[in-house]
Design brief:
- The chain is globular.
- 78% of the residues lie in helices and 0% in strands.
- The chain is mainly α.
- It has one domain.
- It comes from Pseudoalteromonas luteoviolacea DSM 6061.
- This is VanZ-like domain-containing protein.
- Keywords: Membrane, Transmembrane, Transmembrane helix.
């Protein structure tokens, strides 16, 4: 895929996830402990993937941008009456994005070792 496609997908996912993070959560009868943390982790892992492929920034700058987005999401949730901010969610955001870049680094290191 081209960078333009990744940029478009990143923008669409940012819009969709911002909307979902702002929605009122309906509590269901079956609850999975820490499912919201897993969702935050997965979303930010995916955002890191699309961000990395959409723009030619250094990984640390992607992390700054994604960490800032995560902080803004938590701030937004703190201002919505039916939502609440969570440090755990923010940590899951950062760990999700960081996991992508660690995995990318490990894959590159493995490929370099394999080719030499």
């Amino acid at each position: 895929m081209t960078r333009r496609v990744y940029q478009t997908l990143l923008l669409l996912f940012l819009i969709a996830f911002t909307y979902l993070f702002a929605r009122e959560v309906q509590v269901q009868s079956i609850r999975i402990t820490h499912l919201d943390k897993l969702a935050h982790f997965a979303v930010f892992f995916m955002l890191a993937f699309f961000s990395y492929h959409a723009f030619k920034f250094k990984p640390w700058f992607h992390m700054v941008l994604l960490t800032s987005y995560g902080a803004c999401i938590e701030w937004m949730q703190s201002t919505i009456p039916y939502r609440q901010a969570s440090m755990g969610d923010f940590i899951a955001d950062v760990l999700g994005a960081l996991s992508y870049f660690v995995l990318l680094w490990l894959m590159r290191k493995y490929q370099a070792r394999k080719s030499s």
